Every structure is written in C-alpha cells, then in structure tokens.
Amino acid sequence: MSSAPLTSTPPPLLPAKSKSSPPHHPLLSHLPHCTSLRSLAQLHAAAVKSGLAAHPAFVTRLLTLCTVPGAHPAHLAYARQVFDRVPHPSDAVWYNTLLRGYARSPSPSPAAAAEAAVRVFARMLEEGVAPDTYTFVSLLKACAAARAGEEGRQAHAVAAKVGAAGHEYVRPTLINMYAECGDARAARVMFDRMDGDCVVSYNAMIAAAVRSSRPGEALVLFREMQAKGLKPTPVTVIIVLSACALLGALELGRWIHDYVRKIELDSLVKVSTALIDMYAKCGSLEDAIAVFQGMESRDRQAWSVMIVAYANHGYGREAILLFEEMKKQGIKPDDITFLGVLYACSHSGLVSEGLQYFDDMRDHGIVPGIKHYGCVTDLLARSGQLERAYKFIDELPIKPTPILWRTLLSACGGHGDVDLGKRVFERILELDDSHGGDYVIFSNLCANTGKWEEMNRVRKLMNEKGVVKVPGCSSIEIDNTVHEFFAGDGRHPKSQEARKMVDEVFDQLKLVGYVPDTSHVFHVEMGEEEKATSLRYHSEKLAIAFGLLSTTPGATLRVVKNLRVCPDCHSMAKLVSMVFNRRIILRDLNRFHHFENGVCSCGDYW
C-alpha cells in the first residue's frame, strides 16, 4: 500500500475482480485504522487494484469512516467524491451517511454544508431511492445549522408527502429547524400537532423560545413539561438555565440547581458549566465560583465560562490569573477563552496586557474574529487612544461591522471628541442607518460640545428615516417572579407605588448631597429642573425603588438593564447602597456593577 500515490481525488472505480468474499476481505479490516487522508487514499488505491472498490460493503464502510463525528472536512469531501463516482447509487444508507456527515460538519461553513446536503437529497430523489426518517433528520439538521429556512420548508413538504413528518424523531427536528430559522410560529404549530408528549419536542420548543429572546415562555414550557411527568434531560436543564440567565432570575436558577442535584445531573461537566454561566449572569459571582471549585473535572468550556464570568463582573486580574492557571493545567485556550481575557482587560483598563494577549492568539493558532477585534477596539478607545482605535478598525483584514464603529463612537462620546465622532458616525451610516442608538450618541456628543446646528441636523435625519430609540427596560426578581419596568411609563401594575418610592428615595438622597447629573440630557428647550425630572423615572430607578418596597431590609437587589446605565442612575445606585444599607447588583448592556457602601465595583469606569 505504501506505493499508492497521495491524492485527494479517489481513483476510478473498477469492476470487482477479487475472488475473496468482500465482507471478509482483509482490506476491510484495515479501513478503521486509516486516521489520515493519506492512509485512506493509499488503502483505497489498493482496493481499486484488488477489485474491491465498487463493492457496496467497501463503499459503505469508507463513507462511514469519512463522516464519523470529529472527522476532518477533507475526509467528508473525499467521501463525496467517492459517492459521486458511483454511476447509480441505490443504497439509502449511502445517502444517509453523507447527509449525516453534512449535518455534523460546519466546515467550510454551515451554508456550504446545507447546500451540499440538499444536492445529495435531490440526487436521492432523482435516482428513485426512497428517503426514510434518518434522511430527514440529517437533512433538517443541516438546514437548521445554516438557517436555511426555504430549503427546510421544502424538505418538510417532502417528508409530509412520504408520511415521515409526524415521526417521533422527525417532528422534534422540524421544530428545531423552524426555531433556528426564526420561524417561531411554524415551530409552535408543529409542537401543537404532537400526538403524545415528547421530551425532545419540549427541548426544541424551549430552545426556540430562548433563541427568540422569550425566556419567560421557555420557563412556562419547562413547568408544563414537569407537570406532565416528563423527566428533563441534561439538554433540557442547560437550555432552561440559559433562560434564567437571560432573565436574571437567580432564585429560579437556584431552584433548578437544587432540582439538578435531586435528579443527579450536577456531576455532568456541561450542566455544571451552564450553572456557572447562569449564576454569573444573574449577578451571583460567589455561587458561580462555588460551582466551578466544586467540579471534579473541568473541560475547556468550563474554564472559559468562569474566565468570562470574572471579566463581566469587572475582576480583570482574577480572570487573567485563572487563564494562566488553565494553561498550567494543560488546557489549551480557544477563541472563547481569549475573548474572555480580552474582555476582562478592556473593562479593567489593562491595555498593555490586553494587547499582549491579542498578539498571543496567533501563537495558539487562533485567527481573531470580529468579537476579538471589538475587544481591542474597546480596549484602546476606553483608554483614550481614539485615533489609534480608528486606525486599528480601518486596517483590519476583514470588513468592519457597524458594531466595531459603534464601540468607537460611544468612546468618542465619553471623551468628547466630536470631530472623530463625526467621521465614525458617517462610517456607521454607510453600513447601517437604522440603529437609533447611533443617532442618539452622536447628537448628544454634538450637544455636549456646543455643536447645536449639527445636533439638530442629526435629529432631523433621525426623524426623516423613522429611526426610534430603544426604550430602557429594567427587570428585578422578587419571590421567583420577574418584574419589568420601562422608562417613564406605567405598564407595571405597581408602577405608581414604584414612582412614589422613587420620590421618597430622592428626598433621602438629597440629604447626603445628591444632585441630578443632567450632563447627558441634551434638550435645548428644557431647563435644569425639567432635565432632572426626565431622569427621575428611568427604568433602573423604578426597579430599584420597587425592590426597596418589596424586600426585607438588607436584602440584595439584583437588576437587569437592557441598555448602558446612565451616569445619573449610576450615582443614584451608589448612594442608595450607602443610605439604605443595600447591596445592589446591576447588569447593564456592557457589564455588571456591584454597588456597596456607596462604591461601585467598576470604579466609575464603564
């Protein structure tokens, strides 16, 4: 076999000439030991010489070997070439093996894998080979991974035509496909058509709700699942914990943790990792650390999630120490690990350390992605190196996204650089002119620097395009119920009580020197008193006030905000923590703020 040439193109198939019975041919026993494309090509060449290459048993085993989980993409490409050389493939197993390979492989991209899977399926129908449930499960998974909704719907139509759409394995896959492709309505229709209760289908629907940013619905489905006596799988638990993380529902997350212990799933690394993530995103870094330290074994994802947790809570040095410890333990960092370290450096002002870690990525064979570039942009911009950040974005090897420029625009606002801000704002509009936050940041920057004419031009442009600012929304969990408050409105049933409590809180805060910070309220027609009033009922203030009303003295308040916390709300929270002797943990769009005894963990650097 050593004389066989190395090639990524399979040799031509020849008629079988071997007198050996193919199922017992010695070459078949060598196939499982071909771990490289070179050895596979050599054995395949030997099979051609012996007349075995066209035998169904050999083709089946070769295709299976090339599509096992974790196989290199080159092996899948080789398998496809072997398959394409078969004149009229009639074995459904061959088609299903290839489709399973495309469903598992994201390389070179999910879209390319889905496209290839669709072509294999089309040939299957052209050759008159009947698809079965395995066919549709793999095809639909490939479509889901690529968000290929149209192709998924066509596959659904064929599955319905041949009577496979209602199968116990196909239906959950259909639900998942529609959910991944953003069609929540179709996913729900499929779910409601279920004849019986199925854990896999519930998992798909719960995941669909989480992906669609409807965590409350995910938790309702989980409770419904429990009421029906269905036992959650590790997948169920992981998805539900992510819903708790999105909502910031700590008490519910703790209840699920207790439940996980009862059903003995807490020893699973993936479940423990989800618990770390949930606790960190719900504001309890202490619980996240406790879970991490209690793990008997940790994989790379567990280390990475803990590093990101430290970063999000502003503990940059601790994140770096953990990263270094991870490497000492022999765990190789990946792109997510480096993202956590870079994020930690950017939010802790560790500029030189962050740039060094960015350079180290290539030493580990990791190509930076858009999020890594975003961290470096933030790192430079926060430290006031605005022109350097602009040059960094402008010279990237990939096309910059609006988010990168948006990061720099926000920093221009913080540092009062209106000239660079205008250049950045114009770059953003070239890519995306529909984001209301961009107009608000730049118009505020103009107002803050006295560029009133430019401010009015931007606001006029905003009105002409019909762009609206995303309303501020803050949530707080009280007695396992998540309460949401929106800036200035009365949607919550106890919004009037919350507003009255805000007034009482401010009366107390004024006694210790509170003065409204109106520096970011840029309405020329407003006086200072009107500006202060416009700040008073921001959503996080309402949530904090409601928390003071609804909890016992000394209880920690945990608030989740959908936008960046404004300077006035930040000052108010610091004073509330001191005057009312409360610990307040506020998660905004960028990070966590731990307020205690009048001080914030961010050091007023956010």
TrEMBL record:
The keyword Iron does not apply. Pfam families: DYW_deaminase, E_motif, PPR, PPR_2. InterPro entries: DYW_dom, E_motif, PPR_At4g14850-like_plant, PPR_rpt, TPR-like_helical_dom_sf. Residues 513-606 form the DYW domain. Keywords: Repeat, Transit peptide. PPR repeats lie at residues 198-232, 299-333, 334-368. Residues 15-28 have a biased composition (Low complexity). Residues 1-28 are annotated as: Disordered. This is DYW domain-containing protein.
